[in-house]
Amino acid sequence: MHTSVQEQSFIQEIIEKGTAGLEVDRAAYEEKVKNAIKDNDSREYIYDTCVKLALENIDEATPEWTYVASRIYAEQLYEEAATNRSTSAENPYTNFYDLIVTLTNKGVYSPHILAKYNPSEIDYFQEQIVPSRDRLFDYLGLYTVATRYTATDHNKQVYELPQERWMIIAMYLMQDEEEGYRSERVLEAYWALSNLYMTVATPTLANTGKAHGQLSSCFIDTVDDSLQAIYDSNSDIAQLSKNGGGIGVYMGKVRARGSSIKGYKNMSSGVVPWIKQLNNTAVSVDQLGTRKGAIAIYLDVWHKDIELFLDLKLNNGDERLRAHDIFTGICIPDYFMEQVEKRGEFYLFDPHEVREVMGFSLEDFYDEERGSGSWREKYELCVASDKLSKRKVQAIDIVKRFLKAQLESGTPFMFYRDEVNRMNANNHQGLIYCSNLCTEITQNQSATELVEEYIDDEGSIIKKYVSGDYVVCNLSSVNLGKAVPANVLERLIPIQVRMLDNVIDMNTLPIKQAIITNQKYRAIGLGTFGWHHLLAQKQIHWETDEAVQFADELYEKIAYLTIQASMELSKEKGHYPTFPGSGWETGDYFDVRGYDSDEWTKLQEQVAANGIRNGYLMAVAPNSTTAMIAGSTASIDPVFKPFYSEEKKDFRIPTTAPDLNHHTYEIYRKSAYIVDQRWSVKQNAARQKHIDQSISFNFYVPHTIKASVLLDLHMQAWKERLKTTYYVRSTASDIEDCVWCES
Fold this sequence. Notes:
Strand order of the largest sheet: 11-2-3-4-5-8-17
Largest sheet: 7 strands, mixed
Number of helices: 31
Helix content: 40-55%
Strand content: 5-15%
Radius of gyration: 27 Å
């Protein structure tokens, strides 16, 4: 049955809008669509069919079909929003004030928006929205924003459109800015977001301006060695998981299997039962109903339970000693890697026994210099003590266990604790024991302690805690593939740092010690994505010294601009509370990195004089989802393939590498599992120098890789002073993505 004249007109209209100005075969596509549409098919079916048939045309030679699909899908969104909002689909970005009132009344938007901005301001912001920027999205980006992040009513009906999501984020994060500058800063934030020069973290993107949900990506807890601390920690982690946070947990202080309890020997069951309890929490307390909780557990390589820990995620063996739903990470001192290199011996200890017998905690020290320092001095005292029980192993045997685990499950992650603490700008305030779920956050940590519990005069039970440093990650990332070619870093980074700093004050965190730590350090994590995209545009091959040098120069520039922006913000709003005595104030931060040019020296002096707003500044997160939104490549990773299908739980969409053409294809051709990982390590070493926190860095290896080759990669990473490594992604392993640090 042929389509009606009215339907034909409608089909021609949407095809015209979808294909205008794009190098695609419109006539063949139109014929294909008309043959697929029957008389009386619904408008929704017609839209869906047009999108589907456009996506089917995507290949290496014709990647622009993704923009045809995106434009048609946008028209469908405009029509649905117009119906729900009683506006015109031809002019969808109208009645912005009415939208805010409606969604506030429905309990979707926070009442703060209407309380802070009057109708005339909101009307002004509506006028500044640029609808044509919806055309910057490819289909995958627009689909992701529309189905996961734009505000809907409680029946999931379309209300908020993509440009309004960007404007709401900008308005909400700038609501408390100085009155005379507020509108200007809202528009700067909208400019940065709507041009896809940057993205905010997944929770920030999803929850900013809404009535529920917090804005931070990840948290790190430090568990003390007591029953009270373990259960308090589990409760806190459940609260954070419920509110949409990924959690890193340091378990290195918890006593080992066979340790004493209240003087009774061989009573402790070690860390594994408590990790299994956290595994159950991850499964039971999901993240806002969308996915199971995401928890990474870290343990020191010298802990007596390390071998059991490394077997937790294996697919065989005793299931009572397995925890398949958590992620694992190991905290590694330089000394261990030295022993691995020389095939030497290594000793395992019970941290509780070390505290009891030696009077210190081994985990509370690190080597201040490469090859010497207080950690190895304390370790050697423990080895020499005849009062400590200890187990001698060959260092390489521990390595064999974690290499096997990595090739089977992708974990454990690697955390090089000495390098992390040596480069910590705030080591005057404490120690960093581990990283977060995605291995890019390195900030001071300490356990929260219950100091008193009593019944007051009114019969209420009062518990008093000494708050520890409960790490919070506030993330956002520069889209290198768009921002660098547009030459906007100098304009972009100051507004990005301001937005991140405001997240700290706008956030609603369910854990009180996290609130305290957030204000104490005002830590942010400005990162990047689109590295491979940028290399392709610059015609720089991955496996070259040119790529390494470019990484060095670009990330030095990003570091300079980020530090400068935080310093300027400090002049305006004040420095973070623990700035005095930090490496920022003393200049150590600059000295150890060799920043001695006139430009850097001047900035160092300005920081010393004016302070810095944020105690931690930069971290490169995985950000695969938000990189998809922005139409670029994930983080600092190579592309998976030049042409592939992007698969998530709810879709499978043909995708090409960004800006794929006959010029860029050769750069993308050597993709993730083909590229020589040694060059990836070199690039990361170059950029790590300039990143004050860390980098979420994956190894991509074939499943046939020899253990000795994988070990060489780890040794290279350690020798070149990387702080962390993330997944070992093998062609044979099915590795679940972490999405909570995507930014």
